[in-house]
Amino acid sequence: MMRRGDQLLLGFFFCLFLSLAFAEGGRIRHYKWEVKYEYKSPDCYKKLVIAINSRTPGPTIEAEQYDTVVVELKNGLLTENVAIHWHGIQQIGTPWFDGTEGVTQCPILPGDTFVYKFVVDRPGTYLYHAHYGMQREAGLYGLIRVALPPGVSEPFHMITIEASSLMTGTTKALMNKPLDYLPWTLSLLIHGKGSFNCFTPGIQSGLCNATKLECSPYVLTVVPGKTYRLRIASLTALSALSFQIEGHNMTVVEADGHYVEPFAVKNLFIYPGETYSVLITTDQVPSRNYWAVTNVVSRNSTTPNGLAIFNYFPNHPGRSPPTVPPVAPVWNDVDSRLAQSLAIRARQGYIHHPPQLVASLSRHRNLSPSVRVARKLCVYAVLYLAACLARLGSSVVIVTVLVVRNMR
Fold it and tell me: Using CA atoms, how far apart are residues 359 and 303, in angstroms rounded to an integer?
């Protein structure tokens, strides 16, 4: 006959088996990152940035709906803590991996490694960024692209390829200055590349070099006569932006991870932390390239434009467009920005309903008898292990949280 302790241990392992058996489907996407200081010139001005695996923006997370994302993050910074927030991910059942330092987790100390693990339950375009000090503005950010599972179609059928665009405003030494005003954005980046005004008074000689390849405009190569989906995200700290591609209209189809009823824009207004997907058709004169431009709006700014080249294949990608970049919208044109906000409507038939998992977990009486028994065995097993550790004089405290889903 089995002893009581053996029964509890058996129940403990049975509970682990249940938690695996009832886990959500999908693949595991594993990433191993190290955060370090590096000197780079993303906007032609050499500065200390924070990079992930020597990249800023950091690596793009590619996943499909219901996949589990695992990020093993090592803090290689010598003097700063780190935390990463997964912007737009709902974290159903995993709030402790949200990455909000001081709220949902303790920071990752220098030299330490922390493993984030969460399920991406909605398709769409999302962000990740540092949630400690001004590290986001130092380059610690990236994009999350969540596709539909194989065999499931999007609510639009004109996609042939995807491109991502990241824009960020760069600031200097904000941590040591009181925030008595909104400081000027010094440069704008598109996909990690931009242009700083090297003639700015007070710039140290030799630190700014506008001829560096590292800060040459980002090139997005397209084929004439196709329709593309561009995923656009704003990681500015304080600036509202507009984004446009010379001579082309854009059709907005997604906003912040939600499908929307399509509507056309010439300028896309985008605010800090927002993401959009737009469709754009390459229907202009194919013998030349075009400008992609981002500008600061909502304030009368002197910040240089963020520029990229919309390259029509087979034109040379380094060939500058023959025109000057298009003029930015008037900085105080509130009506146009309001019109865009009012045009955003949820796409009918693709509205995300609130998750049912949380509700089912709160109704213990609706669990099947076998699951109720398993829950009790889990609790008893944890208590038993704690008692064993206490008996051995261990100073280690183990807290185990096991969620058993309702079997239908």
Answer: 49
Q: For residues 123 and 167, state if they share a domain.
A: no
How many domains, the chain?
A: 2
Peptide bond before residue 314 is cis, with ω within 30 degrees of 0 = yes
Q: Are residues 140 and 178 in the same domain?
A: no
Position with higher pLDDT, 97 vs 397: 97
- Residue 289 to residue 28: CA distance in whole angstroms: 40
CB neighbour burial string for 150-183, b if at least 16 within 10 angstroms, e if fewer: eeeebebeeeeeeebbbbbbbbeeeeeeeeeeee
Q: Name the range with the highest mean pLDDT among 24-28, 99-103, 375-379.
A: 99-103
CA dist 314 and 301 (Å) reads: 36
pLDDT value, residue 208: 81
Q: Identify the domain containing residue 95 by its residue range.
A: 28-147
- Give the tens place of pLDDT for each residue, 78-137: 999 999 999 999 999 999 999 999 999 999 999 999 999 999 999 999 999 999 888 888
CATH number at residue 56: 2.60.40.420
184 near 303, Cβ under 8 Å? yes
Among candidates 305, 327, 193, which has minimal Cα distance to 239? Answer: 305
**What's the pLDDT tens digit per position in 248-271?**
999 999 999 999 999 999 999 999
| Sheet strands (E) in 287-403 | 290-297, 306-312
Closest CA to 11 of 400, 395, 406, 393: 400
- For residues 132 and 86, is the Cβ–Cβ distance under 8 A? no
Show the tokens assigned to 318. 């380094």
Nearest to 132 by CA among 105, 97, 167: 105
d(CA 279, CA 375): 49
Q: Are residues 273 and 168 in the same domain?
A: yes
**Residue 408 above 80 pLDDT?**
no
- ∠142-167-176 over CA atoms, to 5°? 85
Distance CA 259, CA 130 (A): 26
- Indicate the helix (H) or strand (E) that contains 28: strand 28-40
Q: 212-247 pLDDT, tens per residue?
A: 787 889 999 999 999 999 999 998 877 899 999 999
- Are the C-beta atoms of 273 and 86 separated by less than 8 Å? no
Query: In DSSP terms, which residues pair with 275 in a beta bridge?
Result: 233
